[in-house]
Amino acid sequence: MKKLLLLLLFSSCVLLSHAQQSGTSRWTPHADSIFQHINRSLVSTGLLTNYGVALKDYAPFQGTSLSAANQLRGLAEWRLLYGAMQSSIFNGNATLLPLATANQRLAQAQDQQLIFSP
């Protein structure tokens, strides 16, 4: 019984340590091997949606029009979209702030009441 308990404890520690890695850090080497033959300089925006981890569908947010279908419902939804865009950075042409910095600036804007918080 002690051996079984020790085995369970050890395996849970291994699983917890593996869970601490971010999804993009495990995905990036695989994506790099898939897209290794693509000329990165030809991606003018610096973002390649197939390269990243799609936490939120980009399709409604093309920037052409505003409708009920593409309005963000809150900061959590914005963070999902921003995180998905950040994981899609394919070359140096994309200049997105790190999510932590963007969150910090949003918090400062909320403190100054520059943006409405629901």
Structural descriptors:
118 residues, mainly alpha, 4 helices, 47% helix
Describe the structure.
With 118 residues, the chain is mostly helical. The chain has a domain at 47-118. It has four helices and no strands. It is globular. The protein starts with a helix and ends in a 7-residue tail after the last helix. Mean pLDDT is 77; it is low at 13-21.
Question: How are the SSEs placed, and which strands pair?
Answer:
Layout: H1 2-19, H2 23-34, H3 75-87, H4 99-111
Oligomeric state of shown chains: single chain
For the largest beta-sheet, the strand count, sense and barrel status come to: none
Q: Into which percent range does the helicity of residues fall?
A: 40-55%
Count of alpha/pi helices: 4
- Structural class comes to mainly alpha
What ranges have pLDDT less than 50 throughout 5 or more consecutive residues? 13-21
Spatial gap, N to C terminus: 52 Å
Strand percentage lies at: under 5%
Please tally the β strands and state the result.
0
Helix and strand run = HHHH
**Radius of gyration over all CA atoms, rounded:** 19 Å
The shape is: globular
In short:
With 118 residues, the protein is mainly alpha-helical. It contains 4 helices and no strands.
